[in-house]
C-alpha cells in the first residue's frame, strides 16, 4: 500500500492542471477532496478525555492511519485528487499573516491568564511553519511548553499533562469544518467546544493557501452554528440542512439567507433531527447515492420532516429579500418538490430494527458518492452494503474499525472541493 502521508495524490497536483473548486451536488463525479490523515492529535486521547473530545473509544493510531491511507488510495485510484489538510495548513502557515493568525487562535488568554498567554504566544511565534502546524493540530501540554521567566499560578496549579493548547482529534472529519456550496466555501461555526478551534485553522488555510486565495466565502465562520455534516446539496440550488445537536435553527436560517443573497441556492430545507450522539448530523441518517436517490436509516424514512425556506417576494428595509418559510411536511415530499422531481427514491435497506440501529451507529448510512451509483462505505456494515449492491450501487468498502471510533464514516471524513456536473437526466 502506498503511504499517502504528506503527499497530494491524483491528477491536478501540477499547477497547470489545477482543478477549479466548486460543488453543486452530492453525487456529481468527485474530482478533488480534502482529507485529514489522522496523526499525533489522536495520541492525546485517554479514557479521561475521550468523551469531551468526542471519541467513543481510544483509537489504535497506526491502524487508523493505515485505514485512512487505504481510504485515500481508493479515492485516488478512481481519479480523485486528494488534498491533505496537513499539507494545505503547512503551506499556508508559511505566510507570516497566516502564522500570526494560527498563533492568535491557539492562545486562550481567558483560560491561561496574561503571564502564561504571553509566554505561549512568544514560544509559538518563534516556531517554523511545520512545528507550528503540528502544535496547532496535536495541541501542547504544560510540560511541553518551555519554562519562561515570569511566575504563573495557572502553570503551577495545572498538571504537567494538562493541555495548554487543546488537541484537535476531530480534524479527521473534514466534512464538518468547511463545505463548498457552488463556488463558495463556507467555514463552519462548530458547535462543540472541542471543535471550535478547527474554524480558525480552516479559515487561515482557505485564506492563505495559494490554491484557494481567491475563493469567495459563503456564510460567516462566526455566525450561528452550522456544521458541514448537516448540509446536503440535494441538487444544484437545493440544500437540506439538519437542525439538531450541532446546527441550530438560527444557523440554518442564516445559512439560507446567505446563500439566497449570494444567488447560489433557491431552496433550503431545514430538517429537524434527534438531538443525540447517534444522529449528531443529518448525514448520519441520510446520504445521497444518485441524483434522485438516498440511503436512509429506516426509522428516519417516515419520520423526517422539513421546513422549506425560499426567498420571498418582499424586500426588507436593508434591500435583502424577506424569507419565506413553509411546512413542516414530510422530508421526502419537500425534497422532491424542491428538486423538481417526482419523487426522491429511498434505497430500502429493509433491515430489521436492531441491525438497522447497529449499522446506523457504525455509519452505514454515511456513504461518500464518487459518482452516481458509486459510493465508499465501511466494510463492517455488511447488511446495508449488501442491500445497496442489490439495488445496483457499487460499494467500495473500506476498513474503519479504528477510524470509526470517532463516530464518523466516509462522508464525514471528506470535504469535496470539486465535483463535475451531474449527468443530464435521460
Ligand atoms: N459529518 C459527520 N457525521 N461527522 C461526524 C463527526 C464526529 C465527531 N467525533 C464529532 O462528534 O463531531
UniProtKB/TrEMBL annotation:
Q: Does the keyword Repeat apply?
A: no
Its EC number is: 3.5.3.6
Report the subcellular localization: Cytoplasm
Reactions listed under catalytic activity = L-arginine + H2O = L-citrulline + NH4(+)
**Mind listing the GO molecular function terms for this protein?**
arginine deiminase activity
User: Where in this protein does the record put region Disordered?
Assistant: 1-25
Which domain of life does the UniProt lineage start with? Bacteria
Q: Is the keyword Transmembrane in the record?
A: no
User: Which pathway does it serve?
Assistant: Amino-acid degradation; L-arginine degradation via ADI pathway; carbamoyl phosphate from L-arginine: step 1/2
- What's a single GO BP term from this record? L-arginine deiminase pathway
Q: Which residues form the active site?
A: 412
SUPFAM superfamilies per UniProt? Pentein (SSF55909)
Keywords of the record: Arginine metabolism, Cytoplasm, Hydrolase
According to its UniProt record, this protein's enzyme class is hydrolase
List where Low complexity composition bias occurs: 7-18
Q: Which GO terms describe its cellular component?
A: cytoplasm
Q: Which InterPro entries match?
A: Arg_deiminase
Query: Which HAMAP family does its entry note?
Result: Arg_deiminase
Q: Which family does it belong to?
A: Belongs to the arginine deiminase family.
| Descriptive protein name | Arginine deiminase
Q: Which organism is it from?
A: Prauserella sediminis
Gene that this sequence comes from: arcA
Amino acid at each position: 500500500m502506498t503511504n499517502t502521508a504528506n503527499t497530494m495524490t491524483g491528477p491536478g497536483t501540477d499547477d497547470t492542471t489545477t482543478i477549479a473548486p466548486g460543488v453543486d451536488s452530492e453525487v456529481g463525479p468527485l474530482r478533488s477532496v480534502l482529507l485529514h490523515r489522522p496523526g499525533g492529535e489522536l495520541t492525546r486521547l485517554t479514557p479521561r478525555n475521550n468523551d469531551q473530545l468526542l471519541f467513543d473509544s481510544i483509537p489504535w493510531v497506526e491502524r487508523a492511519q493505515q485505514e485512512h491511507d487505504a481510504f485515500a488510495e481508493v479515492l485516488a485510484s478512481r481519479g480523485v485528487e486528494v488534498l491533505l489538510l496537513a499539507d494545505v495548513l503547512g503551506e499556508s502557515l508559511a505566510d507570516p499573516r497566516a502564522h500570526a493568525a494560527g498563533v492568535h487562535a491557539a492562545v486562550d488568554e481567558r483560560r491561561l491568564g496574561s503571564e502564561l498567554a504571553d509566554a505561549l504566544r512568544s514560544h509559538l511565534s518563534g516556531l517554523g511553519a511545520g512545528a507550528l502546524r503540528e502544535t496547532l493540530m496535536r495541541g501542547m501540554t504544560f510540560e511541553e511548553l518551555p519554562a519562561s521567566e515570569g511566575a504563573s499560578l495557572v502553570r503551577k496549579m495545572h498538571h504537567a499533562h494538562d493541555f495548554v493548547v487543546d488537541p484537535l482529534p476531530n480534524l479527521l472529519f473534514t466534512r464538518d469544518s468547511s463545505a463548498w456550496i457552488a463556488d463558495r466555501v463556507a467555514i463552519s461555526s462548530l458547535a462543540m467546544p472541542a471543535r471550535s478551534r478547527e474554524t480558525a485553522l480552516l479559515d487561515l488555510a482557505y485564506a492563505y493557501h495559494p490554491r484557494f486565495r481567491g475563493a469567495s466565502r459563503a456564510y460567516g465562520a462566526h455566525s450561528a452554528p452550522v456544521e458541514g455534516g448537516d448540509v446536503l446539496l440535494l441538487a444544484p440550488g437545493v440544500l437540506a440542512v439538519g437542525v439538531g445537536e450541532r446546527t441550530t435553527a438560527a444557523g440554518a436560517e442564516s445559512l439560507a439567507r446567505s446563500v439566497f443573497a449570494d444567488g447560489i441556492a433557491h431552496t433550503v430545507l431545514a430538517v429537524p433531527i434527534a438531538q443525540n450522539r447517534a444522529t449528531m448530523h443529518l448525514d448520519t441518517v441520510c446520504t445521497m447515492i444518485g441524483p434522485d436517490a438516498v440511503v436512509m436509516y429506516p426509522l428516519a424514512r417516515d419520520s423526517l420532516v422539513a421546513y422549506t425556506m425560499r426567498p420571498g417576494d418582499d424586500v426588507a428595509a436593508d434591500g435583502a429579500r424577506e424569507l419565506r418559510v413553509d411546512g413542516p411536511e414530510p422530508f421526502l415530499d419537500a425534497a422532491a418538490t424542491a428538486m423538481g422531481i417526482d419523487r426522491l427514491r429511498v434505497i430500502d435497506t429493509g433491515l430489521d430494527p436492531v441491525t438497522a440501529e447497529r449499522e446506523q451507529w457504525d455509519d452505514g448510512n454515511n456513504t461518500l458518492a464518487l459518482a452516481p451509483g458509486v459510493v465508499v462505505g465501511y466494510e463492517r456494515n455488511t447488511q446495508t452494503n449488501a442491500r445497496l449492491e442489490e439495488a445496483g450501487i457499487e460499494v467500495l468498502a473500506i476498513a474503519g474499525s479504528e477510524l470509526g471510533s470517532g463516530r464518523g464514516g466516509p462522508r464525514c471524513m471528506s470535504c469535496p472541493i470539486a465535483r463535475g456536473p451531474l449527468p443530464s437526466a435521460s
